[in-house]
Amino acid sequence: MLPGPCQSEGAPTQRTMLDFRVRDLDAMLAQLRAHGATVDDETQDMDGVERFGWVTDPDGNRIELWQPA
Q: 0.85 exceeded by the pTM?
């Protein structure tokens, strides 16, 4: 657990950040959207290094998805 609120832009009470490694970020985000998940519209790309995307659970906690390069 983190000592204070998580810097994740999730719920103010969020004290942890889950980060899942995925093989295909775009496919995973599309699959989550198709099942009604709240998925951020934007992704963060670090050219040649990694890509990130986010989904929010029903309690408002932000979950990070990570695709390595």
A: no
